[in-house]
Amino acid sequence: MNKRSTVQGSGKVTGMYRALTRDIEVVVEPFYLEEQSDPDDDRYVWGYRIVISNHSKMAVKLVTRYWHITDMNGIVDEVTGPGVVGEQPHLKPGDTYEYSSGCPLDTPSGMMFGHYQMETDDGEQFHVKIPAFSLDTPNLLRTLN
């Protein structure tokens, strides 16, 4: 996992995370959405931008997604469904696909990871890792024991 810190737009970016599975690269860039968050009401919202790049020699279709989301209290939410943002993109060799989505939490930090189920044009299915990434409210103070 590589991480590179950046800042973008009105959201505060915490870094970039990368994973490579069978020459399919997934890059995630999470950012805190302060204008949609309300800490007084225990509502914290993050957006994330994902770029999927097909560096392989085969075409693939993103069939389903799986997310494992954990808040700072250890509460887990699992999300599954067809495609991403209403689409099941087909990526030929050299293609990239980019989308943005979001995640609300009841706590000021959390973590997400998951996978995409891909399918080749020959019908072979396999999982592509979505790297684990942290959702941290800017200026969050943590206590380590």
From TrEMBL:
SUPFAM superfamilies, A to Z: ApaG-like
Residue ranges of domain ApaG in the record: 18-142
PROSITE patterns for this protein: APAG
Organism: Rhizobium lusitanum
InterPro entries, alphabetized: ApaG-like (IPR050718), ApaG_domain (IPR007474), ApaG_sf (IPR036767), Uncharacterised_ApaG (IPR023065)
NCBIfam families (alphabetical): PRK05461.1
Source taxon at top rank: Bacteria
Listed name of the protein: Protein ApaG
